[in-house]
Design brief:
Helices cover 48% and strands 7% of the residues. By secondary structure, it is mainly alpha-helical. The chain has a 3-stranded mixed sheet with strand order 1-3-2.
């Protein structure tokens, strides 16, 4: 399967399916609520309550933080890479269409298998899409946040919130 864009990219290299292989091999949510047994460049704190993790994941504070981190990326691009930033919608549309019948479908299935509510899908979808946007622009030394979340997902956990000022704060995970 290929990634199709609604118009040709002039400034960015198109992402290819192999860019997503790390996401395709994730055992989504397999360690939710369990002890953290991996190291991270970020400070991590485990949330052991399903109820609390859902509340945090669905909170306006987490949503605003996620939006702020993506805005850091888009404002950086608008300031420093004007031509490349004009292809944001094209690259994002291609990525979304590619992921919808693959990784996004798998994530939704795993949420259901693990008895996690569908309400957290939007947060996970945002994280994955934002990570892929970081991939598309990474050669421009962009500010990153979502690349720090993927190892959490790879280890079967769910990022639910952030305490403190990035990058010195703590990611709360279930």
């Amino acid at each position: 399967m290929t990634i199709e864009y609604d118009k040709p990219l002039r400034y960015l290299k198109p992402l290819k399916p192999e860019h997503f292989s790390d996401l395709e091999n994730i055992n989504w949510f397999s360690n939710c609520g369990k002890e953290i047994e991996f190291s991270s460049k970020q400070n991590l704190k485990r949330i052991d309550s399903l109820k609390e993790s859902i509340e945090l994941c669905n909170s306006i504070e987490w949503e605003n933080f996620q939006l702020e981190k993506r805005n850091d990326l888009t404002s950086f691009l608008n300031r420093t890479r004007k031509n490349e930033s004009t292809e944001w919608n094209t690259i994002t549309g291609g990525i979304k269409n590619y992921l919808k019948d693959g990784i996004f479908k798998t994530v939704r299935e795993k949420l259901n298998q693990r008895d996690l509510p569908d309400s957290i899908f939007a947060s996970v979808e945002w994280d994955i899409l934002s990570y892929c946007q970081e991939l598309a622009y990474k050669k421009y030394n962009i500010p990153t946040f979502y690349s720090h979340l993927i190892p959490i997902y790879k280890n079967g956990h769910l990022p639910c919130s952030y305490n403190g000022q990035f990058p010195n704060g703590t990611i709360l995970i279930y």
